[in-house]
Design a protein that fits this description.
By secondary structure, this protein is mostly helical. About 40% of the residues lie in helices and about 0% in strands. It contains 18 helices and no strands. Helix 1 packs antiparallel against helix 2, helix 2 runs antiparallel to helix 4 and helix 2 runs antiparallel to helix 8. Bound molecules: heme C (HEC) (10 copies). The site of one heme C has 18 residues, from helix 14 and helix 15.
Length: about 325
């Protein structure tokens, strides 16, 4: 690995090939595949075309591949760190070798990939260590074998995932449960569900992975919530235990058929924890009772998130 790092510093042009090679040699399972073996041979041979993108564009001159790519960040010829300053198309697709069609493969990504996600991603990560690598290998999407190109469109002039609506649409193309939830009666104002909103899944989650549960952006679930809902940060004089522990005990972050994203309505919500003895049992018996009318328990215990009132022990003021 040390050797690789040294080489990366001295030999910019061959560094990508080496990164890919190192992944292949570390991962015998991936290397077993025939196409990957062939691409490995091509990397060893290192037969890059002498005129870079010009060679490729002779044949690949369709608008989707060429024109939009040249308008994208990666097609920027002025960027000193981008692919165009390096091996151009072959930075990502590997050395041309004898490729002039189906006779010899090039590395393909995303939906039509011909190599493992790990190998595809090693190409991207060779430049994007800081953006994605630190948490990427801790995250669920890496464990689930997602490729960078499952979310990112490198050849589009503007990657749709950088737009809020495009982003939510992309996430919910796989996450159908969350797509259904965000259209329920009570929901966070996500782009796509609420016109003009810029809130997205990424307001709460890091798609590149994180150390927290559910790949949240924050160190804990409650930290995530109070990051925006600061009024519930606490501490308060009279705490309500479940609030301090986990907001999602009562709330469904993605959407709910009940008001205020509640998992259940009061009194059922409250009775899940509070035994129906004493005054509480009356709630079950008589539906015209003051205990169940309107907001039921909340009619009296209105400070369900905790109270700072000197006599707020019962969360009633
Ligand atoms: C930054 C890495 C990168 C560079 C540089 C790059 N490509 Fe791509 N290419 C991709 C990815 C990723 C895809 C998959 C589709 C997408 O993400 O838009 C792709 C798709 C393609 C496809 C379509 C294959 C398919 O899977 O449908 C062709 C052809 C292609 N690229 C040719 C080129 C040519 C020619 C150049 C140079 C002008 C080039 N690429 C530069 C990453 C790159
Ligand atoms: C002599 C013409 C020619 C040249 C030069 C050429 N290609 Fe191709 N390439 C093709 C043909 C033909 C295909 C097969 C396309 C098909 O069947 O749809 C292909 C397929 C591909 C694919 C797979 C995508 C697909 O649709 O199958 C990629 C990626 C690719 N080429 C990248 C490159 C890159 C990068 C270069 C430059 C280093 C390059 N090609 C140079 C003709 C060429
Ligand atoms: C040769 C280095 C290099 C490689 C390889 C590379 N990138 Fe990039 N990428 C860059 C540079 C440079 C930028 C522009 C960074 C900036 O402006 O801060 C960029 C920007 C991006 C962005 C932000 C785009 C935007 O709209 O602002 C995304 C997403 C991205 N790359 C994804 C990828 C993916 C996915 C791959 C692999 C298919 C890849 N990159 C391969 C160098 C590279
Ligand atoms: C699950 C979808 C998903 C996957 C997989 C994914 N990304 Fe991203 N990526 C995003 C989203 C969403 C953003 C936009 C974040 C934002 O706008 O704040 C992003 C942003 C980026 C950026 C721009 C960062 C910036 O600060 O501007 C880069 C670079 C990038 N991703 C690279 C990668 C690389 C490399 C991989 C693979 C190792 C990858 N991504 C995998 C969803 C994904
Ligand atoms: C190509 C499909 C795909 C796309 C696109 C995708 N994901 Fe995922 N994601 C998965 C899979 C598979 C899992 C693991 C199974 C599960 O939890 O559903 C997962 C898991 C997750 C998890 C749970 C993490 C955990 O540790 O429990 C979160 C959060 C997540 N994705 C957010 C996102 C966000 C945000 C986006 C859009 C930026 C996105 N996903 C786009 C496939 C995808
Ligand atoms: C307001 C913050 C927030 C937003 C916005 C958000 N999530 Fe979540 N998500 C969470 C929290 C908190 C959890 C973990 C606890 C839970 O599911 O109750 C979670 C869990 C998940 C999980 C794992 C679910 C499981 O059952 O393990 C997935 C997948 C997921 N979110 C995807 C998404 C997608 C896709 C979007 C956008 C449509 C999104 N989330 C928007 C906060 C959010
Ligand atoms: C990125 C900021 C952000 C984060 C993080 C966030 N919220 Fe929200 N939340 C909002 C916005 C914006 C609204 C809608 C406007 C409002 O009512 O303040 C909202 C509304 C709500 C509502 C009222 C919904 C309704 O239908 O009346 C509840 C309940 C809620 N959030 C709970 C949570 C919980 C629980 C978490 C943590 C899992 C969380 N929020 C994380 C921004 C956020
Ligand atoms: C014991 C159940 C419970 C827990 C745990 C809980 N809430 Fe609530 N929350 C409720 C109920 C009931 C309502 C609706 C009645 C009301 O407005 O007080 C509500 C309403 C809300 C609202 C919308 C109304 C408003 O006052 O703005 C937000 C935002 C909210 N909660 C955020 C949070 C956050 C953040 C946490 C974690 C720190 C949390 N909740 C934990 C029960 C709970
Ligand atoms: C996840 C379980 C849980 C849920 C759901 C829950 N609580 Fe609690 N609640 C507790 C715990 C634990 C305490 C602390 C009990 C103790 O100290 O004896 C508490 C304390 C209270 C107290 C203070 C009385 C006391 O003895 O300290 C009131 C009042 C109360 N809850 C009302 C409600 C209401 C109203 C709801 C529904 C909106 C509700 N709770 C939902 C677990 C829950
Ligand atoms: C009409 C007002 C009112 C309503 C409605 C009400 N409470 Fe109470 N609650 C009180 C008062 C007053 C006390 C203190 C005296 C007592 O114990 O009866 C109390 C005490 C409590 C306590 C602490 C004492 C104990 O029994 O452990 C809890 C927990 C509690 N209520 C939960 C609930 C729940 C859950 C609901 C809804 C199912 C509810 N309350 C509905 C007025 C109300």
């Amino acid at each position: 690995m040390d050797e690789l790092i040294k080489l990366r510093a001295t030999c910019v042009l061959k560094c990508l090939a080496l990164t890919v090679l190192s992944v292949l040699s570390l991962s015998p399972a991936a290397a077993g595949d025939e196409t990957e073996q062939l691409l490995l041979e091509k990397f060893r041979a290192g037969n890059y075309s002498s005129s870079g993108a010009d060679t490729c564009l002779r044949c690949h001159d369709d608008a989707a591949t060429a024109a939009s790519f040249l308008q994208s960040v990666h097609g920027d010829t002025a960027s000193p760190h981008g692919p165009m300053a390096k091996l151009q198309c072959e930075t990502c697709h590997g050395p041309r070798g004898k490729h002039r069609g189906r006779n010899e493969p090039m590395i393909q990504f995303g939906a039509s990939a011909n190599v493992s996600p790990e190998l595809q991603n090693s190409v991207c990560l060779s430049c994007h260590m800081q953006d994605a690598d630190e948490s990427w290998h801790l995250g669920t999407h890496d464990i689930e074998d997602l490729a960078c190109a499952d979310c990112h469109q490198v050849h589009a002039a503007n990657d749709p995932i950088r737009d809020p609506v495009g982003q939510v649409t992309k996430c919910t193309s796989c996450h159908l449960e969350q797509r259904a939830a965000m259209n329920k009666r009570s929901h966070h104002p996500l782009a796509g569900a609420q016109a003009g909103s810029v809130m997205t899944c990424v307001s709460c989650h890091n798609p590149h992975g994180s150390l927290s549960e559910a790949d949240l952006n924050s160190v804990s679930l409650n930290d995530n919530c109070v990051g925006c809902h600061a009024e519930f940060r606490g501490p308060v004089l009279w705490e309500h235990e479940p609030v301090v522990e986990d907001c999602s005990t009562c709330h469904e972050p993605h959407g709910s058929v009940n008001d205020a994203l509640l998992a259940q309505r009061a009194p059922q919500l409250c009775q899940g924890c509070h035994a129906s003895d004493g005054h509480v049992s009356r709630v079950l018996d008589n539906s015209s009772d003051a205990f169940v009318a309107g907001q039921s328990c909340l009619n009296c215990h209105s400070q369900v998130h905790g109270s700072n009132h000197p006599s707020g022990a019962l969360l009633s003021q």
